[in-house]
């Protein structure tokens, strides 16, 4: 969740793209737009900061706002 291409959002997006992840979907939702994908419903910024959610088999992990936290969740695959 965040504005694409901004200094605040880019570290999370770059971390998500950093590794080869077959069979993975990455979706970006701007804070002011409605959820266009059911998985995005109820997901929003945390503390006004860009936020990533890693979901597996219809369950999402804790929201993260730092690239290091996203990296840790993605490495748990």
How would you describe the overall organization of this protein?
This protein is globular. The model has no long low-confidence stretch (mean pLDDT 93). The two termini are 21 Å apart. α1 packs parallel to α2 (67-75). The protein has one domain (10-75). It is mainly α and 77 residues long. It contains two helices and two strands. A hairpin with a 2-residue loop joins β1 (55-56) and β2 (59-60). Strands 1-2 form a two-stranded antiparallel sheet. The chain has helices at residues 10-17, 67-75, and strands at 55-56, 59-60.
Low-confidence stretches: none
Give the tally of structural domains. Answer: 1
Arithmetic mean pLDDT: 93
Beta-strand content:
5-15%
Helix-strand makeup class: mainly alpha
Q: Major sheet, described briefly? A: 2 strands, antiparallel
Topology, number of strands: 2
Relative helix content? 10-25%
Q: Tell me the distance between the termini.
A: 21 Å
Instruction: Give the topology string: H per helix, E per strand.
Output: HEEH
**Globular, elongated, flat, extended or rod-shaped: what is the shape?**
globular
Strand order in space, largest sheet: 1-2
Number of helices: 2
> What is the C-alpha radius of gyration, as a whole number of Å?
12 Å
């Amino acid at each position: 969740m965040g504005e694409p291409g901004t200094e605040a959002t880019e570290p999370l997006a770059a971390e998500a793209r950093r590794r080869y992840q077959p069979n993975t979907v990455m979706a970006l939702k701007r804070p002011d737009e409605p959820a266009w994908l059911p998985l995005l419903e109820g997901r929003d910024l945390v503390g006004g900061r860009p936020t990533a959610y890693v979901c597996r088999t219809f369950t999402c992990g804790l929201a993260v706002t730092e690239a290091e936290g996203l990296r840790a969740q993605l490495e748990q695959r």
